[in-house]
Write a structure and sequence with these properties.
330 residues; mainly alpha; Dna Ligase, domain 1
Length: 330
């Protein structure tokens, strides 16, 4: 009897290592299956893409939506994890964004505690930008931004959307953007409001002039000089004859304009139409607004920029032609 028991014990000991190895392999295999099939992020995980949880959504609906959007592999497991966190009835509604793939445990925690992951996006609007240029910039960086709707709403505010560096949340809409740009303009104008009130020109006239000066000059000194020249021409009932208005209407610069362009009856054709264009042609900087408001008094009626960017001024058309030949060869 003792011999048989001893034999069984010996056989048990001999096979213990084998059983341990098999059990370990089985556990490891199941762990891999569990991780690959449930825990790890899906291959199409939505990085830097807004994922929304609508207000009042049930946990079941949220979990299913997360699975459909590639955030998790299993809606059932996500529901279970959020449930054991005790947050089944309080999944935080709102927009979420993930900067990198997250496993299902992390996603459950994010949803349960409202870790939205939203960070401001830095967007620069350059001086002189037109609303159609702004629309392209914002549309490329803000997922909820509607380019067409922005253009419709912003066009009446052309020139009154201040160029600056802005920080918007990734879920900002066109209405949010428009409000911020217009509010910034109003704040900037408030700085020089007393001077505008005492000016001989209206705010609209100053903004239109500033939008032209913005594109015509590269520095403060030239802006003030050119503003003086353009006001001089208007006072003498001369057409402004600036090419930059064609950039606004047909997108052509000086060297692309044709005779037909120069003879068109467009209200923005300052070769044919006298006075200021009907609207600004872009959003001027505060420096250009101040140049329009406080131009350098001079007796010049013409100007041109040479190939190095230096601006030359003339009092007569004959003098202007001589300088054009000298500096531009035409």
């Amino acid at each position: 009897m003792h011999t048989a028991v001893g034999s069984l014990e010996e056989r048990w000991r001999l096979h213990a290592n084998r059983r341990t190895i098999i059990a370990s392999c089985l556990v490891g295999y199941l762990s891999v299956i569990l991780y690959v099939g449930i825990i790890q992020p899906p291959h199409n995980f939505p990085i830097d893409t807004l994922v929304s949880v609508p207000e009042g959504s049930s946990l079941q609906a949220v979990a299913k939506d997360m699975e459909e959007h590639g955030v998790v592999r299993s809606a059932f497991v996500l529901r279970f994890l959020i449930g054991i966190m005790g947050e089944e009835r309080s999944v935080r509604a709102g927009d979420y964004i993930f900067k990198q793939p997250r496993d299902i445990f992390s996603v459950a925690r994010v949803l349960a505690f409202g870790e939205f992951g939203l960070e401001p996006t830095r967007i620069r609007i350059h001086e002189g930008a037109m609303t159609k240029e702004m629309a392209l910039i914002f549309d490329a960086q803000l997922e909820r931004f509607d380019e067409d709707r922005f253009l419709t709403e912003a066009l009446p505010h052309e020139g009154y959307l201040f160029p600056d560096t802005y920080f918007f949340m990734p879920n900002a809409t066109e209405s949010t953007v428009l409000e911020a740009l217009r509010h910034n303009f109003d704040q900037q104008i408030a700085i020089i409001a007393p001077e505008i009130a005492s000016s001989t020109h209206s705010l609209d006239e100053l903004v239109i002039m500033a939008s032209i000066v913005e594109r015509e000059a590269r520095n403060s000194k030239d802006r003030r000089m050119i503003a003086g020249v353009l006001w001089n021409r208007l006072e003498r009932n001369m057409p402004l004859q600036v090419d930059v208005t064609f950039l606004y209407t047909i997108g052509k610069g000086t060297f692309d304009l044709t005779t037909a362009d120069l003879l068109s009856d467009s209200p923005y054709n300052t070769y044919v139409q006298k006075g200021l264009p009907p609207t600004p042609i872009g959003s001027p900087s505060l420096d250009s607004l101040e140049a329009a408001l406080h131009p350098t008094e001079n007796s010049y009626l013409y100007y041109l920029a040479d190939n190095t960017g230096v601006t030359h001024f003339s009092k007569t058309y004959q003098e202007h032609l001589r300088k054009k030949l000298r500096y531009l060869g035409t």
